[in-house]
Amino acid sequence: xxxxxxxxxxxxxxxxxxxxxxxxxxxxxxxxxxxxxxxxxxxxxxxxxxxxxxxxxxxxxxxxxxxxxx
Length: 70
Description:
Elements: H1 26-36, H2 41-44, H3 46-50, H4 61-69
Organism: Pseudomonas syringae pv. avii
InterPro entries: Fatty_acid_synthase (IPR003965), HotDog_dom_sf (IPR029069), MaoC-like_dom (IPR002539), UPF0336/Enoyl-CoA_hydratase (IPR050965)
GO cellular component, one term: fatty acid synthase complex
């Protein structure tokens, strides 16, 4: 299990790094669509997404933003 530590702003130093990874799963996309009301087919419909510049479904931008700010 990953340990999360709370570092006060004053303790941050130039050069420090942190990392986070998450495998986005189908349920993440479905739950975020339900919660946000964003039912854009580029997120939910694989056939629709194939015809876009992305060529496949993509996660909601704000879902990604929520992970960054967590």
